[in-house]
# Entry
Amino acid sequence: MQSIKDLIIQNNNQEWFKKLRIGLEKESQRVTLAGELAATDHPKTLGARKYHPNIQTDFSETQVELITPVFENEHDVVSYLGALHEVVLRSMKQEEMLWPLSMPPILPEKDEDIIIAKLEKFEDVLYRRYLAKSYGKRKQMVSGIHYNFEFNKQFIEKLFEEQSEYQTLSQFKTALYLKVSRNYLRYRWLITYLFGAAPISEAGYFSEDEEKPDEPVRSIRNSKFGYTNHDDVFVSYETLERYEQDIADLIEQGKLSEEKEFYSPVRLRGGKTMADLKNAGIQYIEIRNIDNNPFAPYGITEDQVEFLHIFLMYMLWLDNRTDNADELLKVGTQLNNEVALENPLNMTNYLTEGLGVIAGMRQMLDEINASANWYYLVDKAEELLNDTRKTIAAQMLTMFEEEQLTQHEFAVVYAKEYYDKAWEKIYQLEGFRDMELSTQIMIFDSLQRGVEVEVIDRSDQFIKLTFNGKVEYVKNANMTSKDNYVVPLMMANKIVTKKVLNEAGFRVPLGYEFQSLERARLIYPEIAKTGFVVKPKSTNYGLGISIFKEGASQEDYEEALAIAFKEDTDVLVEEFLPGTEYRFFVIDGKTQGVMLRVPANVMGDGQSTVEELVKKKNQDPLRGTHHRSPLELIQLGEIERLMLKEQGLTIHSILEEGQVAYLRENSNVSTGGDSIDMTDEISSHYKTIAEQAVLSLGAVICGIDLIIPDKEVNPFESKNAYGIIEANFNPAMHMHCFPYQGKGRRLTQNVLDLLYPESKVI
Amino acid sequence: MQSIKDLIIQNNNQEWFKKLRIGLEKESQRVTLAGELAATDHPKTLGARKYHPNIQTDFSETQVELITPVFENEHDVVSYLGALHEVVLRSMKQEEMLWPLSMPPILPEKDEDIIIAKLEKFEDVLYRRYLAKSYGKRKQMVSGIHYNFEFNKQFIEKLFEEQSEYQTLSQFKTALYLKVSRNYLRYRWLITYLFGAAPISEAGYFSEDEEKPDEPVRSIRNSKFGYTNHDDVFVSYETLERYEQDIADLIEQGKLSEEKEFYSPVRLRGGKTMADLKNAGIQYIEIRNIDNNPFAPYGITEDQVEFLHIFLMYMLWLDNRTDNADELLKVGTQLNNEVALENPLNMTNYLTEGLGVIAGMRQMLDEINASANWYYLVDKAEELLNDTRKTIAAQMLTMFEEEQLTQHEFAVVYAKEYYDKAWEKIYQLEGFRDMELSTQIMIFDSLQRGVEVEVIDRSDQFIKLTFNGKVEYVKNANMTSKDNYVVPLMMANKIVTKKVLNEAGFRVPLGYEFQSLERARLIYPEIAKTGFVVKPKSTNYGLGISIFKEGASQEDYEEALAIAFKEDTDVLVEEFLPGTEYRFFVIDGKTQGVMLRVPANVMGDGQSTVEELVKKKNQDPLRGTHHRSPLELIQLGEIERLMLKEQGLTIHSILEEGQVAYLRENSNVSTGGDSIDMTDEISSHYKTIAEQAVLSLGAVICGIDLIIPDKEVNPFESKNAYGIIEANFNPAMHMHCFPYQGKGRRLTQNVLDLLYPESKVI
# Structure
């Protein structure tokens, strides 16, 4: 093979070389808060395992497997893994958590109490029974991380165009990944050294009569005592043909039941099945020797992922003989086993080779103009080589000793920490906290029920969902393909909305639109004695609005007009509808939530000042800023102080017990208002009206605001029992999911039911 | 009946009293440009008469009847009538126009050459045959205007609540409209005096042996020689019961064939049929004695409509005896006939009564705080009473004499004037010229094929269409219920659009999005030698964009980044795609138009300066401003002068013959660019690509921009034959309908076909 290094440098392909595509898989055991293996089934809320793309069970019913989609950078893949972690933790019983180690917790004494995953397909169950028999159930309880790695496709195409050795792109690609795999297998001991995190087995893991390691070691899992095939399984990585033939022969000989039983640290992948590999050549490789890192909340840190990336780049970069493939592999396996079984606190026997690899990596970084962070990661690896106490396994041992903890206790401490973190802000989702809350909740619900999620544009809250091959795009969690385009345009225009609702027979505040004060003046006699509102057509935040609840003098009316015309060229003069405003959230013809919004307020306790009461109320974990929490912090700015003043108060006033002070006139949650769920308190009559009104607008997802003077009145038997004042095509969802008071309504689930009825989890 | 006047004044109902609902119907004869009755059929482009709500034929195939919807003000109804006029004129053969008089043009000598309307329903034809036999075909060729009038419903409800005489609203309403009708019948001679416009009949209209008026008169049509029933038809307006009974009796006696043969100047209306009247009481009245005013382009002026409104208000206001209903009616008929047969140049015999009515009307205006315009209209009527030469009929006669014209010649002159006006700016539509051009064109096409149009919000270009009971809302002529909501949101986001198209396998300019200059700098090596574009993510008008067609130095790249980051926090660095940009307009899966847009330019003639050439090019009637014309005027502002400077030119430079000077870099039609239709020049391959790309976006109405380096290349056989650079969810339509060069593509018709396939006119 030509020097890849030269091909890259001479043709200026450094930037393409740096790109990657990566997907992670991570297993871990469900345990009780005490660290005992869970006796419960896989959570029902996670939907059916037969299709769930991201959350599966591996060998046992307790062994959760998380699978991320493929990403093009390290940050995104770890974030997504974090999200899956949170989804699983919050889907499990609240008395369960995830075991943070590769080595399993203390296992039940009897093998039959280790429950094989209850999968629907009987062949999947049969395979697991075979594994239990062939390797023992306990070995199968080990967990780890798989790292699916691919170079950028265009990078490979560019290299291919510039080389002359291979005829087809597929041949070239296969040769390239074989080289990486061989080199990785040869040097993988360094990864075991750096990231090995399985120093000790719990009692009962090895049987009495079994050969076992001299614990502590760097990684039982990566040693010959770990998750490996029997000794008589050897597969060559010299050529793809030999690799395939060897596996086929082993299956033929009954030494492997099928391809996936081949537990190599590097598996060649052509697609989903072995046949894909034959047809398409190697498309990517699966690195399988990463232990769960207990110090990382999700089992692996972004730095580890990035270091592995550089390491794999180096495995391509590194030129060496190719005529000794099988030999190299055997040397690699031997070195790895030795290093895996070293005491973590001792220096490795292969320091010199390790430092050589590091030096080579650094040289590569120099030649490809690498970022400072990559140098930092390589420096750090060197530091770990020189100071073995800084490796993960050694740090674990040090901690056991310093904190006087058993490994079990240590694992419980960390598991609990990650568990607490997952339950802390249950309305947010790791990896997506920069997105709007409603979108975070929808992503959570999607991941939970097995709908694939891809963020198309973060700042635009644009996500792509896929279920059973069907793609749906969603923006702001409430804008979907189910609504037709003209409906939101209609709702964006107050005049149009009113006209349509009015024509359909719903009560709306009637009124006029004016472009001139002169014309507006003329209608005074008509409204003089009725309640009315003067407002600019387009503004939304109360600016320029005057409300006359029981008529007004000609002078007051004209002043109100003047104020409104300052804000807009179009002014509306509308009937005033007295009553309480409720938001009805209608999805697919059904009212899924009714919300009462109360302006920002505090209630006195007889001793605290308004300022103190606000501070206290703001401690509610549901309150935050910028729509990243279901409620917003109450402010004490100019508007709030003015509002207090109108009530004869200041921020230093002490309120009597039960005395309520309002800090805002408007009831928006975005200005600190309270959200109170009223779904069960509002009669079905009003829900029917809301549903019919939404239907008449043609909307599928809609927040519609009704003014109701007395909710006990039957609107079908009484005139003017309600009025519709607005229909919203981008209604906030998070406040319904996590209200200040009352029951939460998971509207995001309703939207998902609408988009994918077949994904509904009962 | 209680005094209506008192009920209005005492309860402050003046403003409600002033409101009205009005619909107009107007008949006229199709004639050749020489003024001969047309021998052609009703235009096929107007769709089927069996459902057309606005454009019908009355008695003969040549007698077009225009029917407006109901409006709440005079301006809108006249505007709409104007629109219907333009639609009909532009749908007729270009050698035909509309006769502007109530009296028909010279009719064919033989009765059989007057063709009865070719209607689908045989009973409609039979009825017309009966009329021809009963009244003679010639009488049925008279045209006129019907004025459907209704008071505001809330006004009537308010009055009803305040009176004590009637038990039910329906009874009250019926009494109220009966009063108006009786008074109108009594005083209608004043309308005949003011608006009579049928002084002379053409030769052959009356047969030799027939009794005929002593011409000229004020209105043959409104006299006993006009369009009236036979003498033995008398119907009482005393009560609704007597009205119904009398008509029923006349039908029973064979004196009327059916209710609609009752040619009263006031017809009571309860709905569509006589039965509705019985069930619902009177809902509105139809005033039928208005002659076509030849001085008004559409047969009636807004002032006339408004005067009739005030006159009808006065007919309600006016208190009088109710025990002499039949007598009043007979007096009214007699007075009207007398006035109708007066010589228009002579003073009327009933001046005193007329002045009395005027005085009463003025008093009413005083009591209801009327606007200045209403006083003006009443003053004007008084002026006409005092000076008979100012009446319409008299003005016609004066003109015949002064200009030495026959009535026929006079009518041709005016018909031609209105005809010319209708053909002048064929891309605009009377009554909707304030709306965007695409919406005007769509309204035209809708009215033409019989789709009902209601403007819901003018400034928002929001219209409601109804066909066969099915409602569709349309905004900007291209936003409809056929597109789903998430698709335009997708297209509004360039990143999302590119991702989706790229994943679907279409070529798009690949690239990156950056939030920081530092990160953007790093990719320089990757793009150094390729063509690329640096641009702010969100701006649209070329601001902050740098194009490097063949790579750039590191310095230039960084400068371009700095410029782009000044415009936006997100900057895109994208592959540059060389070639010509074409807009493909895809509707419902089919490319309906392909457009090449060329930047504003002029071509020299060897003697004119750039400034002169621009002036000349701007004289094209297709050029205008503010999107009210298919092309925009070319400006000579700072940008254009700078652009000239770059070509070594000023506005005073004389261009050689054939020399082209560009005045803009961007090709937008909105900055004076030329639109060139290329639909027939572009191969179906590219159309297929555009259609498939639009399909992959899920869009139904979409303008998609392809860069094509060489349109002769087959994109299915060549790599990089095209690139998609944008998909537009609000693509301009008018430029396709009326291009600068090439064939017009009536995209609005395609949208209507999509919304209402069953309305399609072949």
